[in-house]
Design brief:
There is one protein chain. A hairpin with a 2-residue loop joins β5 and β6. By secondary structure, this protein is α+β, with helices and mostly antiparallel strands. The longest helix has 20 residues. α7 packs parallel to α9 and α8 crosses α9. The chain contains ten helices and 16 strands. The strands form five sheets. It has a four-stranded antiparallel sheet. It has a four-stranded antiparallel sheet with strand order 6-5-9-10, with no helix packed on it. It has a four-stranded antiparallel sheet with strand order 11-12-14-15.
């Protein structure tokens, strides 16, 4: 798909060991667990983890200064009677105001509704729309608390500032896509490419360049014998240099679900609409001076002047937006599928005819 469409384009995870402190018979690890695991008459509730994440792919309600807060919890029945567990048992407050919940792309991540027998545990995620870097309070209310509601609730404090460092990784797929654009389309160096993507830069660039050349030959109608590699190399170099200089690009990860991400690319394409008329004029001029010239002769001539004519083009007056799929490998690097139709669509957007 990518090759066919190209013709249109012409943690390191740091582990900190906490030393035990002999104060009051408790160490720091135990004290921390006391903040994340608490009990009522029937339930032992633990906040397993909390992190910022991105909204579902098709959600438009979350603002730029907001994240989705994902809180993974576990609930254990420590009574002898069955205990009903549901996500509605939990409420999140930000600055004393209750915040709204949101459903993720993969609903299997959500804490499911269940009836727990004695000693059994239910685990799952809770998802809330929050402002970035705020302080939050997660409140668990035990079912059937009745008039003694205050005695049947548990409260857990969550510090938004503590979550921001990991939140930076939410844009890793966007950074990876930017590096693909740099090396493939702009012809830039980008020393971080292989670290971000796990792909071999030379292989990716060679495949892209080969597809470009084949695409040009197919779309222009020029014969393979007439389209010498050195002329095609000059054309490709001119296209990449012009795009790198005049096309503006920004990328932003829109959503992440498991090992898949959707990245939004906003770009200013090159306006190639004047090029056709300009080349027609050049062709007419060529034939007037070379009346015995063949069609192949004209094609060779146009190919020879194409690079300089392309460099004269300017940016479009309007932006284009396209969404691209990225996939994460086992070591948190984000790869672009060169054969995905959305990748082809991205390539096409850089030149506006």
């Amino acid at each position: 798909m990518f090759k066919k469409k190209l013709s249109l384009f012409l943690l390191i995870l740091c582990v900190t060991v906490v030393a035990a402190a002999c104060s009051g018979g408790k160490d720091k690890t135990a004290a921390k667990e006391n903040d994340t695991k608490k009990s009522l008459d029937a339930a032992e509730v633990k906040v397993e983890s909390a992190e910022y994440t991105l909204p579902p792919q098709y959600d438009t309600s979350v603002q730029d200064d907001q994240y989705v807060l994902k809180v993974n919890v576990s609930v254990k029945n420590i009574s002898k009677e069955p205990l009903n567990v549901d996500k509605s048992n939990f409420t999140l407050y930000q600055d004393d105001a209750q915040v709204s919940t949101i459903s993720p792309d993969d609903y299997n991540e959500v804490l499911s509704s269940s009836s727990l027998n004695a000693g059994k545990v239910s685990k799952g995620g809770l998802f809330f729309v929050v402002d970035k870097e705020k302080d939050y309070q997660l409140v668990y209310t035990e079912p059937g608390s009745g008039a003694k509601k205050d005695d049947k609730t548990l409260e857990f404090d969550i510090k938004g500032k503590d979550l921001m460092k990991k939140a930076d990784t939410l844009q890793a797929s966007a950074k990876a896509l930017s590096s693909y654009i740099d090396v493939m389309i702009f012809g830039k160096k980008n020393d971080d490419f292989e670290k971000l993507t796990g792909d071999n830069k030379s292989t990716v660039v060679n495949e892209f360049d080969k597809s470009f050349k084949q695409g040009y030959i197919t779309s222009s109608g020029i014969s393979s014998s007439s389209a010498k590699d050195e002329n095609l190399d000059k054309l490709l170099k001119a296209v990449k240099e012009t795009l790198a200089e005049k096309s503006k690009v920004s990328t932003k990860t829109k959503s992440i679900s498991g090992d898949k991400a959707v990245v939004t690319v906003t770009l200013t394409p090159i306006d190639a609409s004047p090029l056709v008329d300009r080349l027609k004029e050049k062709a007419t001029e060529f034939y007037s001076k070379n009346r015995t010239a063949s069609y192949d002769d004209a094609q060779k001539y146009l190919l020879s002047i194409y690079p300089e004519e392309f460099k004269k083009l300017g940016p479009s007056s309007s932006e284009e937006t396209v969404e691209v799929n990225m996939k994460k490998n086992d070591i948190d690097q984000w790869k672009l599928d060169l054969n995905d139709y959305k990748t082809s669509s991205l390539v096409e957007k850089f030149i506006k005819n």
